[in-house]
Structure formats: structure tokens, C-alpha cells
Amino acid sequence: MLTLRCVRKTRASLSYLPIFNTNITTSFFFISITTTTSSSESSTYPFLPPTPTIPTLHGISELQSKDVVLSFREWFKSRNNPVLDQIFEILGAQNGNDELSRQSTDLALSRLGLRLSEALVLEVLNYGKDVLSCLKFFDWVGRQHGFYHTRVTFIAIFKILSRAKLMSLILDFSEKYVKQRYIPRVGFYSTLVMGYAVAGKLEIALQLFGRMRFQGTDLDGLAYHVLLNALVEENCFDVVQIIAKQIAIHGFESEVTHSILMKSFCKQKQLDLAESFIRGLASSGQRLSGHILSPLVDALCKNNQFEKAGKLVEEFRESGMVHLEHAYSVWISDLVQAGKLDAALEFLQSKKSMEGYVPDVFRYNTLIWRLLRENRLEEVCDLLMELKENQICPDEVTLNAALCFFCKAGMVDIALELYNLRTEFSLSPSSMAYNYLINTLCGHGSVEEAYCVLNNSIHQGYFPGRKTFSILADALCREGRLDKIMELVILALEKNFIPSDSIYDKFISTLCRARRVEDGYLIHGQLNRLDKVASKNTYFNLISGFNKSSRGDIAARLLIEMQEKGHSPTRKLFRAVICCLCDMENPEKQFIKLLEMQLSRHEPDCQIYNFFIDGAGHAKRPELAREVYEMMGRSGIFPNLSSDILMLQSYLKSEKISDALNFFDDLSKRRKLGRKLYNTMIVGLCKAKRSDIAWEILQKMRENELKPSLECYEQLVKSLCSNKKYDMVFNLIDDLMKVGRHVSSFIGNVLLFHSLKTRELYKAWLRSRDVHNVTSFSLTLDELIFAFSHHIRANQDIEDLEEVIERCFPLDIYTYNMLLRKLSISRMDHACELFNRTFEAKRWVEEMFRKGFDPMKCTKQFI
């Protein structure tokens, strides 16, 4: 008994794997040596995006889903071999490496009562998909009394290990094989040479071959061909010729030899020599097979000589060359890989009808996958039906193709049913099939099922691609599946999968909106531990969430962190954090701490101080704002105009009117007061409901020949109307006209609103007409205020009234609401007419959007 080490790539490590009693026979084993497409198709096909439902596919979509599922279920189950399934179920049940686990497996296999033979071992190894299970079976068989492993079974396990790139295990087999005292010495070196050759250790294999020749022994035919094929694979073409001569001298030359030599010529791109070689064989009267022609056909296609390759196939078919199926298969695969799907389909159908040619499942799979990639679902359906009708045993690639086909064809219910039956078929979906199924289920709104499929895929060792992960994440966020979102994030992080910034932003945004900001913060912490820099938007969402949760301390911490990560907070964000801090315990301490941290990170400048003055002002903590303002001076930074405006606003927002006036007066002594400071003072006083003082300051502003902003007039009109000082309102409007400004929609709407409330406004207007000059504008305004203060005339049309308003000021949505309100009081029929017309206009604008037109700004304001 020996111990073999098993490398990382097996699903579990073997700490105890004995080598077995071995009887070397001279059985001939035909090795696949031709150059064909790799059998690992599922890893070579690019991700195929889902497509919409297609029309009826030869009746499939007309059938009941259950009938389609039943048909495919029976077909996929036809591949099952109950005995082999039972063997691998036993092998997969015990994952332990201890002696107890091995004894349990041995006992279970012994109870099956298998008749051990070389053919059975080869069948089991060919059926298995798990390298570890194949090794366990190989181990168990070799330890059974009366059975001896042959070179054929050794080569079979070598090939399995080679495909899995477990070369070290092959070398272990070869090295430990030497130490088996009970192994017959006949053919011993031949097996070693084959083992090293398959493992790619050609130098050692050739050394052993030389030792054999020195000792007077030689390789047999099988070993010679294994060595020759390995030399070609490793491009050792000088030695190839030497070994080929030895094969000919010993009389071992056969079509296997010819196939390997053809592959050698083709790998060296000696295509003319390869063609001459095969024609020479044909002219000598030898019966040739498609295995010899296949390498040349493949090489010509790779060299873009498809026409010549096709002519060669037809020429040798007409010459009576036997068993051309392999050449046909290679020709079809090359056409498919080159994107010549129509030619491949035409060739397949012609050979099928004329010669009864039916390709193997691998060729069908290759063609089906490429057709799926091109969204040619009708042809995919035809080929799947052909596979079923020809009773060709499907494999995992076929199952995956069928799943993707049903997803792309919009038959996700059938795909899901087949997926749920996968254990009956002993088949595992590929990562691509999982991606398709998840994407399609999300598209059909079956998010719960999509998430279950995701969990299953992870247990199978797959994790969805970025696109699939994004689609599922979007669906979970859209439906508010918060717990599933957290699970998905944890799964992703466990797999070291880092989704895009936008995905994490969606996760965190969704959690924050649902008041689960702590969970969002947990995800953010995981990202930090992975050195992943969150996006600026992610920080905004988290800070906003903690502000809403009254956790200003964490919000402040995140504010500092986002700056350290290279993001620049806005004044609005600073303001929100400071307001939240000011609502916590010890606000002064929290406020000063944040300010000091900011000052320690940056060179002090006006902007930093202004952010804090602004925040304190909005938090209605003018004393903190003033402390920052004075701190600027102590730091040698002279407050700029923005600093003065923000400090003034902080007093006004807190309705500290006397402090605001004193500060305003101090400013007048330090600098010349400009429009911005006057505008700030007037607007702030109006919002503080001190229109009397605001009026006085506006008069001072006019005396200083400064032009107030439109907002000053708007806020003062609103404030004066609220205080029913209508005479002053019209004096103000007169001043507005004098400075060259027009009545805005805001002012006009305020006048309409108060005209509806009281006729005192109209009376004040009549009084103002005696004082101010009568203009066309004043006459129009007179008509408008009268209409809203009194009843609208019975014969007055709605459109006329709209026209009157438009001559005074631009209409907006608020104006139409006022108009509807007035009409509802006096003329309900006109109100309904206006409402219907407005609603119809909205529909027209929506139609414009659907047709790709962008309405102008003046159009949008009415909808």
C-alpha cells in the first residue's frame, strides 16, 4: 500500500490512495489523436444576452408546457445508467479522507456485486465527471481480489488527470508504480513511458525508452503511439521522425500512425506535404478513414482555405474512403467556428439525407450553441428535435443548451421545470445556463425563483457574472427585498466578488430609503475592508440616512471619510450634517469638533468657515455661526462677501431681527453695502414677517441708486399682501415698473390669490390709479383684478381671460390652478372645459416624448 498526494484542484484532498495489483496485458487501445475542437465547449461560448419571446417554434409553443417538459425529461433521463449512477452516488457520499470513510465506501461498492472487467472500468471512468470519484473507483477496483489494472485502464485514468491538469498525480502513479513488488515486469517500462508521456514529461519518457533499448527490451505498439502522439503535441518534431521510423521498422505502422503524422505535418503548417502524404497513402491502395483526413481539413480551415477543404472531403468521399464521419464532423465544427452556419447546416442536411450521416452529440452541441449566439432559435429547435428523434444520448452541454434555448424563446416556465428536474438527469447546469435562467426569471418578475436559482448555483460552485448579478440586484432593489439584498452582498463578499459602484450604491440607497441605514453602513464597512472606494453618491445616501436617523456623529464621521477618499462634499451636505449635529446632545462640542477636524485636514480658507456659518444658520444656532465668523478674524482670514451674507442670513432665519440690524449696521461701517447684502436683508426680513422694516431698507436701497432683485419685490409683495397692506403693494409694483422690471408670475399669482380672498385689493388698486399714471398695463391689470374680485362676465370666454393674464405676466401651473378655482366658484362649465383642455395638452406632451421630441421650456411649465 502506498500513499499518493492529491493536488489542490480535486474537490477534496486524498490523504490515502493506494496503488493496486496490476496485470499488464497486450490489449490494444485506440487513442484519439486527431486535432479537433476542444470538448470543453461550455467554457468557450461567450455570454449570450436574453432575447424577447419569439413566434411559434414548429409547434413547441403551441403545446402545453407540461407536455414539453415531459418529452425532454424522458429524453434526458435516457442517458442515465442506474448502476453507474449508483456507483458515483456512493463515491460522492463519503468525502472524508480517513480510513473509516474509505472502509465505508469499499463496503458499499462491494455490495453492488459488480463483475469487474477492463470494459466496466473504462465505462465507469468515461461516465464520471468528478476526478476525485474516478480516482476513488480506480483505487477500489485495483484492490479487489482477482482484478489487475491493465495499461488501457492506466491510460484512461492518465487521460482524466491530464484533462484536469493534475500532472503531479500522473507522475505519482508512475513513480509509485515502480515500487509495486507484485506487479509483473512484462511491459513495466512501457507503462511508465506512457505515463510520463501523457503527463508531458517527455525528457523522462525518452530516457526510460533509451534505458529499455539498452537493456534489450522495447515498447509495444500502443506505447510507441502514445509516445509519438505526445511528441507531436509538444512540438518535438525532430524526435517525431525518429520514433515514426521505429514504428515502421517494428511493423506497428497503422492508420493511427498515419493520423499522428498528418497532425504533425499540419501543426508545422506543412499543408502541401500533408496533402501529398495522404494522396500517397490513397494511391498505394490502402483503405483510409476520416481520422487521417481530419487534421488536414481542420488545418486548411484554420488557414481560411474552406473551399479547398470542402473539395478534399468530397474528393475522398468519391474515392471510396471509409468511415468519413469523423472528417465530416471536423468540417462541420470548422464551418461553425468560422461563423458559416448556413453552410454547416446545408452540409449536415445533405449528408444526413444522402448518406444517413448523423453527427455525434458534441458536433450537435457546437452547432446549437453558435445558433443560439446568433438568436437563430428556429434552427436550434430543429436540431434539438433531431437529437431526440435520432435517440442521441444528450450530455450536460445539451442540457445547458436546452435551458438557454427555452429562456431565449420566452419559455422560462419550461426552463425552470427542467432545471428543477436536473438531479434526475445527473446533470449540472453550467454558469452560462445559470446566468440565463436568473436573467430571464428577473425579466419575468419571478425574483424569488431567480434568487433560489442563484443559491443553488453557488452551492454548485458557480457565481453569477457581473451582468447577471446586476440584473438580480436591480430586481431585488426594485421590489424592496431587503433581507435578500443583505444575503446577496454577504454571498458576494464571501466569494471575493466586488460588484460595480452602481450596484453597491443601489443596495445602500435601497436600505437607506427603507430606514435600514445600519445595514447599509455594514455593507460600506465590508467595502472599506476590501480597499474598495465607495462612490460619492453612496456617501451621500449614507450620510442622508444617518441624518434622518438623528445620528449626526456617524454622518460627520462619513463626511470626513468621504473627503479622505477624494470626494468633495457640497455645501448642502455640510449643512445637513451640521443641522443634525445641532439637534444632538452637546451640540456645541459636536459642532466645534467637526470644524476642528476640517481645519486640521485643509489649509484654513473662507469656504470651510462659510460652510459652518451656513450650517449653523440653517440649524438656527446664530451664536455658533457668530463664533465661527469671529474665529475667522482670529485666524487672520478676512470674511468675504459670502461670509457676511451667510452671517446675516443666520440671524434672519432665527428671527434675531435686532442682531441682524446691528450686524447690518456694523457692515455699513466696514464696507460699502452692495446689492447682494441689501437683497439678503430685504428677503430675510420678509420671510421673518417684518415687511415694515424690509420696506424701509428697500427705500434706502433705492436712495443709494441700487436696483433691488426681483426676489426682493416678490417677497415684499407677498409679505405686504399677507399683512393686508394693499396700498403699499401697488406702490411697490409701480416702483418695480420704474426700475425696468416686469411683473413676474409669482407676483401675478399672489395678486390673483388675494383678489379671490377679498375685494379690498381691488379697492386699493382703484386708489392707486388716482396716484399713478394710467398705462396699458395698468388697464389690463385693472381688468384682471376686477375679474377675480367679482364675478366673471357671462359672455366672457376662457381664452379671452387667459389672454388678459398673459398680457400682465406669464402663466404657469399655479396660475391655471387659480383660474380653475375662480371658474369653479362662478362658471363650473367653463372650469370643466379648461380642465379638459389642460388634461388633453398633457397627453399631447406625453405623445411628444414617446415620439422622441423634447417640448420647449414654455410648453413644459403648463403640464
UniProtKB/TrEMBL annotation:
Pfam families referenced in this protein's UniProt entry, alphabetically: PPR (PF01535), PPR_2 (PF13041)
InterPro entries: PPR_rpt, TPR-like_helical_dom_sf
Annotated family: Belongs to the PPR family. P subfamily.
Transmembrane segments annotated in the record for this chain: 12-33
Ranges occupied by PPR repeats: 185-219, 254-288, 360-394, 395-429, 430-464, 465-499, 535-569, 605-639, 674-708
Protein name: Pentacotripeptide-repeat region of PRORP domain-containing protein
Keyword Ribosomal protein appears in the UniProt entry: no
Keywords: Membrane, Repeat, Transmembrane, Transmembrane helix
Entry annotated with the keyword Coiled coil: no
